[in-house]
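Justification of resources, computational component.

The compute hours requested in this renewal are based largely on the per-chain cost of generating structure records like the one below. Each record pairs the submitted sequence with a full structure-token output. That output is archived, and it is also reused by downstream analysis tasks.
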Amino acid sequence: MQTILITGASSGYGQETARFFLDNGWNVIATMRRPDPGLLPASPRLRLLPLDVTNDESIAAAVAAAGPIDALVNNAGIGVVGAFEATPMAHIRKVFATNTFGVMAMCQAVIPQMRERRSGVIVNVTSSVTLAAMPLAAAYTASKQAIEGFTGSLAHELGYFDIRAKLIESGYAPTTRFAQNTDLRIEDLIPPAYAGFATPIFAEFANPAMTTKETDVAEAVWDAVHDTSGRLQFPSGTDAVALYEARHR
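The structure output for this chain reads:
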């Protein structure tokens, strides 16, 4: 029976991915900053571990406790929506610490065991913002674009050891805690000078036709984990698929 470790499994895409793999017979290690047994269905195949991907000691402890894993899903992330000029650099650094350096640190922590076994798959969750330039998401986009390039390069070097690296380009889902782990208010990030620009954009965010379901991402992760064709990108959600197809026409 195979084992998957998922970061950021307390809510949203990560939680649904943990549920999906449990339902399909995998051993699941669901990690989160503060493990809560009530977040996922009880199962002898489920383990909850504390993990802060911005803390080296936390990463080392979680990977040691997890033992051998067949798949790593780097899903943990934080975001920010607003005018770049109004976004504090302290928060931008926090976004990169989780979305970029946290992903890299997790990869570096699990690659040795996968290399020794010459097997495994690493799935990094980015966003549809990597498929097209989007307004009011400059810092967030930069943190995710970095992982796009990182994963593409990593796929080449890990392929030598029969380890696969994949990208999930997830769409927008208003039900996820996009701006979690921050006390910033959207009002603080949209100065009056930007109000006329931002209003129609936020109205479009509310369009249900362009909303990604959490199950979309879980199914895309499943496909990526099982893919052996060499495919790198797996867009998930209506908006992400549309952007991906437009780019590859």
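The domain at 3-247 is CATH 3.40.50.720 (Rossmann fold). The radius of gyration is 18 Å.
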